[in-house]
From TrEMBL:
Stored PROSITE patterns: RHODANESE_3
Gene3D superfamilies assigned to the protein according to its UniProt record, in alphabetical order: 3.30.470.10, D-amino Acid Aminotransferase, subunit A, domain 2 (3.20.10.10)
Example of a GO MF term: branched-chain-amino-acid transaminase activity
Domain Rhodanese: 194-235
Protein name (Swiss-Prot/TrEMBL): branched-chain-amino-acid transaminase
Enzyme class, spelled out: transferase
Key words of the record: Amino-acid biosynthesis, Aminotransferase, Branched-chain amino acid biosynthesis, Pyridoxal phosphate, Transferase
Pathway: Amino-acid biosynthesis; L-valine biosynthesis; L-valine from pyruvate: step 4/4; Amino-acid biosynthesis; L-isoleucine biosynthesis; L-isoleucine from 2-oxobutanoate: step 4/4; Amino-acid biosynthesis; L-leucine biosynthesis; L-leucine from 3-methyl-2-oxobutanoate: step 4/4
Tree of life domain: Bacteria
The keyword Transferase appears for this protein: yes
Length: 352
């Protein structure tokens, strides 16, 4: 792919790496590409980061044809590493298909990610626990208010140097089990990474935050009883000697970190079951001590211990609100592979 480059006239000062938070700073440049039914994907460019002119009738603003991805670049001295970008590419293909949007091929996605990360490599931070968050996204730009698949799209990649997603850092988070709203149902868009899923989740998030919780744990939308996922991450529960996570049946996001953890845990000899887990049983296991550890997995959240669950007034503390042994071991292994400080037997890491 030929990429036309327009360099920013003035480069920004880099932020203090000890206080990055998540998603507050953006690099000097972004990748932009256009699609029309007539021309396919064309006009690949790296341009200064900044506003994008849009027609007010752009279909994304009305009917939400929008999908996105999240992955990270890591610095190991002079080397820049990215983690399983082809998995994100495949997920965007599935998301775009569900929303009847133009396909961004795996090759195009990976090449564009590598190109913009390479161009902005000075922005990959080096302080412990920091990385460059990569946010590819795709949306409908055709002007019109009839409901049908748009005939024009943009694919953009922006980059943000980040630290921990949660203010708690790698310490346990408190989770509110949502019993009023639902996130997704089988047959809907739950498996797709699209803005609409997150828009629909915000009311529950606001409610949970008001009560002092960091995130919500969603239950299935039909029975309102089986555990699905947490707001920004998949969830895993260590019950006796079994690790349980929700199955991918259409309503749960197929997380890249989820998939990686399942693989590592299996290779370590753990029993990991992708199965339905009744919330009443989970609360009982938490109460009687059979729930040894719980943690979330996600690109932004990495591995985040869950220290408290609240469901219909029943509040249970997990592992004395301490990060569990397995959670720590998994965090070390996964981040070691991602930062290139541990062997990568899976071939997951790519050097840019
Ligand atoms: C990610 O982990 O990359 C996500 O997309 C979660 C995000 C909504 C912050």
């Amino acid at each position: 792919m030929d990429i036309k480059i327009t360099r920013a006239k003035q480069l920004k000062n880099k932020p203090d790496e000890s206080n990055l938070g998540f998603g507050h700073y953006f690099t000097d440049h972004m990748f932009v590409m256009d699609y029309t039914v007539e021309q396919g994907w064309h006009n690949a460019q790296i341009v200064p980061y900044g506003p994008i002119p849009m027609d007010p009738a752009s279909m994304v603003l009305h009917y939400a044809q929008e999908t996105f991805e999240g992955l990270k670049a890591y610095r190991n001295h002079d080397q820049i590493l990215i983690f399983r970008p082809e998995m994100n590419a495949k997920r965007m293909i599935a998301s775009n298909e569900r929303l009847c949007m133009a396909e961004v091929s795996e090759e195009l996605f990976v090449e564009a990610v590598e190109a913009i990360v390479d161009y902005e490599k000075d922005w990959v931070p080096s302080a412990e626990g920091t990385s460059l968050y990569i946010r590819p996204f795709c949306f409908a730009t055709e002007a019109g208010v009839g409901v049908h698949p748009a005939r024009a799209y943009k694919f953009i990649i922006i980059l943000s140097p980040v630290g921990a997603y949660y203010p708690e850092g790698v310490n346990p988070v408190k989770i509110f089990v949502e019993d009023e709203y639902v996130r997704a149902v089988v047959g809907g868009t739950g498996f797709a990474k699209c803005g609409g899923n997150y828009a629909a989740s915000i009311a529950a998030q606001v409610k949970a935050e008001k009560m002092g919780y960091t995130q919500v744990l969603w239950l299935d939308g039909v029975h309102r009883k089986y555990v699905e996922e947490v707001g920004t991450m998949n969830a895993m529960f260590v019950i006796d000697d079994e690790i349980v996570t929700a199955p991918l049946e259409g309503s749960v996001l197929p997380g890249v970190t989820r998939d990686s953890c399942i693989q590592i845990l299996k290779d370590w000899g753990y029993t990991i079951s992708e199965r339905h887990l009744d919330i009443d049983d989970l609360m009982e296991y938490a109460k009687n001590g059979r729930l040894k550890e719980a943690f979330g997995t996600g690109t932004a959240a990495v591995i985040s211990p869950i220290g408290e669950l609240s469901y219909k007034g029943n509040v249970q503390i997990i592992n004395d609100f301490k990060t569990g042994e397995l959670t720590c071991k998994l965090y070390d292994e996964l981040t070691g592979i991602q930062w290139g400080t541990k062997a990568d037997p899976y071939g997951w890491v790519k050097t840019v």
